[in-house]
Amino acid sequence: xxxxxxxxxxxxxxxxxxxxxxxxxxxxxxxxxxxxxxxxxxxxxxxxxxxxxxxxxxxxxxxxxxxxxxxxxxxxxxxxxxxxxxxxxxxxxxxxxxxxxxxxxxxxxxxxxxxxxxxxxxxxxxxxxxxxxxxxxxxxxxxxxxxxxxxxxxxxxxxxxxxxxxxxxxxxxxxxxxxxxxxxxxxxxxxxxxxxxxxxxxxxxxxxxxxxxxxxxxxxxxxxxxxxxxxxxxxxxxxxxxxxxxxxxxxxxxxxxxxxxxxxxxxxxxxxxxxxxxxxxxxxxxxxxxxxxxxxxxxxxxxxxxxxxxxxxxxxxxxxxxxxxxxxxxxxxxxxxxxxxxxxxxxxxxxxxxxxxxxxxxxxxxxxxxxxxxxxxxxxxxxxxxxxxxxxxxxxxxxxxxxxxxxxxxxxxxxxxxxxxxxxxxxxxxxxxxxxxxxxxxxxxxxxxxxxxxxxxxxx
Length: 460
Ligand code: EPU
Prior knowledge:
Layout (H helix, E strand, L loop, with lengths): L25 E5 L5 E5 L4 H10 L7 E4 L5 H12 L3 E4 L6 E4 L8 H5 L12 H8 L1 E5 L12 H9 L3 E5 L2 E5 L8 E3 L5 H11 L5 E5 L5 H13 L2 E5 L3 E5 L8 E3 L4 H14 L2 E5 L7 H9 L2 E5 L3 E6 L7 E3 L11 H8 L4 E7 L9 H6 L3 E5 L17 E7 L7 E3 L3 H13 L3 E5 L11 H7 L3 E4 L2
Parallel strand pairs: 2-14, 3-13, 9-10, 17-18, 21-22
Antiparallel strand pairs: 1-22, 1-23, 3-5, 4-5, 6-8, 7-8, 10-12, 11-12, 14-16, 15-16, 18-20, 19-20
Helix pairs in contact: 1-2, 1-7, 4-6, 5-6, 6-7, 8-10, 8-12, 10-12
Bound molecules: uridine-diphosphate-2(N-acetylglucosaminyl) butyric acid.
Pathway: Cell wall biogenesis; peptidoglycan biosynthesis
Enzyme class: transferase
InterPro entries: Enolpyruvate_Tfrase_dom, Enolpyruvate_Tfrase_sf, MurA_subfamily, RNA3'P_cycl/enolpyr_Trfase_a/b, UDP_GlcNAc_COvinyl_MurA
């Protein structure tokens, strides 16, 4: 098969653009052959977008490097521009210059245009309150993987002294007397709520103590960004972060941490298709937990200076995994792993404890021949740590099951990636629809599929 439409930013520029009507939403995939090759993984989606928001806090321009070319970045860029931030592409590919010196309140219509497109707008609250004394945040989007409430965010903002008003179209916030430091304990180490507190506390009057904080590597990288800007942030054992507010911050120059979720996705693609993929830019340190599971499942890896090579060892083996906050096994890793586990000899169990509805994607894998049962209430099993959340679900994967082609519709970012990998592992032809969602988080996706020898074409 031949690729008909390129990623706009194909590194080789070799793809033929033949189907002018194709939007990149539907892929026809012929599977059954190993993926082999090299992919470059750049900056993390889950850091780049937050660092872009942090630029609003500076009194001078910032430079962000290795920014991935994904639609979430485009949404945040448009929102920053709607607020008067000048955003320019730098000479080095993937570099953004962000100048907030003319930042202003955006018009409601401009903000509204982005409603539902991403979850990042909620993180504009603190910076906008510092800058303008008010903020309006549209209804949030992001993947439909559970309720995804924002109560932790709003409670934290109230603690800083913000007045929060909920409107049908979004949330209006104001801080007539400015924001002050706060003592906050999160009910759960939420990534977004921790970022909310960091982005708000750095310029609040006085000290903020955040307990039960998330400590993901992307959060540590955001702390590094803020420290470059002049913030004073320290962290203690047991998920405590202390932030001493400062009256002003400057711009930063920062290279984003690599995207470990994307690296893990390609690693699982190699495992599922019995392939061999070198993920340039992947680092061991941030992936320790993933690498342990990968090895236990029968994967083999070589860690190099500039990346990690992933392939199968001997036969694939079943594993039991529980998703968790860092340093646990990330919820964003389970979907591509589950595809590989359909090929393991025996019964695997994956407990999802971060989101209440992140195993729905497995129904389509069953349509492709997998044998996966989802238990809505989780499973009480020996050898498990005590579950910490009521919202867990468990997937029981019986393998090995040969996969065959099917017509499937992408439900969300990580689930969608796993469908593409399943289609590439399956015998025969598959149609994968709604592929645009995958570009929210995987840059140059088609070009990378090409680079590892995937047999696909864009048909719509
Ligand atoms: N939660 C609440 N109330 C809140 C905030 C969160 O109940 O106010 C709950 C959520 O419903 C969820 C849990 O806490 O059950 C964890 O949510 P968290 O806030 O940690 O997630 P997030 O910040 O919304 C980020 C990533 C996700 C990733 C999670 C967990 C971004 C933009 N998103 O989401 O990434 O899965 O952390 O690591 O950083 C993805 O990349 O595909 C993705 C969904």
